[in-house]
Amino acid sequence: MEHTEFNKELVNFLNASTTPWHAVKQMTDRLDAAGFQALDEREDWNLESGQGYYVVRNGSSLVAFRTGTGNVARSGIRMVGAHTDSPCLKVKPNPELRRKGYFQLGVEVYGGVLLNPWFDRDLSLAGRVTVLDEEGSVRDALVDFRDPVAFIPSLAIHLDREANSNRTVNAQTDLPPVLMQVPEDDTTRFADLLAQQVTAEQGLKVRKVLGYELSFYDAQPAAVVGLRQDFIASARMDNLLSCFIGLQSLLHSSGEEPALLVCNDHEEVGSMSAEGAQGPFLESVLDRWCGADKAKAIAHSMMISADNAHGIHPNYMDRHDENHGPILNQGPVIKINHNQRYATNSRSAALYRHISDELDLPHQSFVVRSDMGCGSTIGPLTAGTLGVTTLDIGVPQFGMHSIRELIGATDGYTLFRALVAYQDRPALF
Question: Signal peptide location in the record (predicted)?
């Protein structure tokens, strides 16, 4: 796969993966096309050597793996981890708001959203809807309105003279998007609009909408940008970029060595869920794959937790340690925090540096300023749960947790090449 082809497929993936459920559907479609077999947690598994498999939980988290051709207890597993969720605005259960003839929806902030960029953008709506169909069966359906259906207008500066110097956002009162205008006696139910959308997209005849998990998202598609096309701009780059890189590396590995990709939901809100990194999903899959040899397999294994890093912003250079300011398009970033907000240690970092050096690929390091707090990833959670050697790494980006984020156009492909070599490596240590 070449650099330009990789980015083209990345842009298509980002545009189609508007929610965690849509992202997992995109990944399973690619796994199916590559001959991977779907597994059901409710059934027995009969795993064969040299085969590829995947299992989905809640429709929003996925574990895909190649069993390899050798003994997993001696070979270990080359693991890559990422997360499918991104900070966003989610629709409340009873969302309808009618004010001065405008139909709006109440929203809940999901994760650490950078709120100001959500104003004055074309928004669409997507997610999972659970319905009762005409036959009396309860069914899940994915919906994606695709078209711009909502807008959160800013208050004009004439009515807020301090907007550029002292603006705050009240998540309860300032964020409900405007969807349409309605007459004063309007009785439109959001559930009815959803039922119509399910029927239009999925062909299901809906008797009743029983529940939903829906997110607003930026309707502007991902794009290669910059005077010399140095960058890629998109929503949900954190962390669908790493999901895509991890998936592509697994699909392009030889399959000789045991390798695994886990993409968890709910990282942005702490990972404590049935399908989150603090939940039992990954360990359950390893139990069924490795059986009594799991402890030995983990002792020979490594996890690379791939989650984007903070590139040094040219307008805010003082927010970085002077010796650790990652530059876009200068390689993936090894993330280090001795207080274990990142799980990198000298051993895991050394292996990645060695692989990169063998391929003549660039790499960088990041340490947060000593007077600032440090974010975290699924890396420490996975390391603490499994006891597996772990590396935290990520592509540098601007605008993390904004509605639109920016990466360098070469860094994703660089990480992809390193991960393929990592998954094909006969011995990790």
Answer: none
